[in-house]
Amino acid sequence: MDENKVAQLINEVHERSGIWDKSLALSKRNKGHEWNKVAAALNVSKTTAQNKWKALIAKFKHEHNLVQFHSSGDGLEDTYQSSWPYYKSLLFLKNNIPALPSKSNLS
Fold first, then answer.
1. b/e map of 69-97 (b: 16 or more CB within 10 Å)?
2. Which position has the higher pLDDT, 50 or 95?
3. Phi, psi of 95 (to 5 degrees)
């Protein structure tokens, strides 16, 4: 999937909170129907859209964990800023990712 389609995929999913917002009641989520709409908008199969989304989420979780791990009280030189082009576009997912346990320099 090219960069434009990936950006469009992110936008299409973001507009359909039933796909990604775990705080919504299951009755409001209707993910299958929403994925059909995403696939149609991108002119790809539902499976292709879902597989690409899973890969994006996995990469986002990795990047977000690096950002969180290296910015919780560490020195400025240890701060990590993601250079992955889709990181900022996917920040709407941050509340759906379990927080890493905090670390301490005092142990």
1. eeeeeeeeeeeeebeeebbebbeebeeee
2. 50
3. -75, -10
